[in-house]
Fold this sequence. Notes:
Elements: H1 3-14, H2 30-40, H3 56-87, H4 94-99, H5 106-143
Helix pairs in contact: 3-5
Amino acid sequence: MNIFQKKFFSLVKEAPELEPDPTLPVPEDEESEVNAATDMLDTESDIDTFGAPDNPEIALKKQQSVKTINILTTWIGEVENFIDYLNGTDDGSINFTINSADCDSILTDIQRSESKKISRLAQDLSSLGESLKQYLLLAKRKDAGNDSI
């Protein structure tokens, strides 16, 4: 310990215990404060009208968070649609078309030389989609107020 820490701890140990100030109100729970405020109002008054105004900074952050969530959701959908277009099992996909082509067509040559590239591209896009889903989960958690990014 340095000299300042020693002096501080000695002052803390020697300091007398302070009694709570009887003139200060004792903190109450939130429900009793709402009841007390309601009891003070006229019968026509509503307690909700006396609250603090909304913070514009919080409203802006909420708006930006909703916009970000919508953008990420759109991106994820587009990436998944493109993966299905590249490597899907339905009639419209590139992989299905080149694999069901006639033996002597140019699509057979494409299938031989480019099939691995198409599969690798679909795999990389799938990885990107999963990463975007993780960011979407983080954005939703932040929007709910449970965490920060």
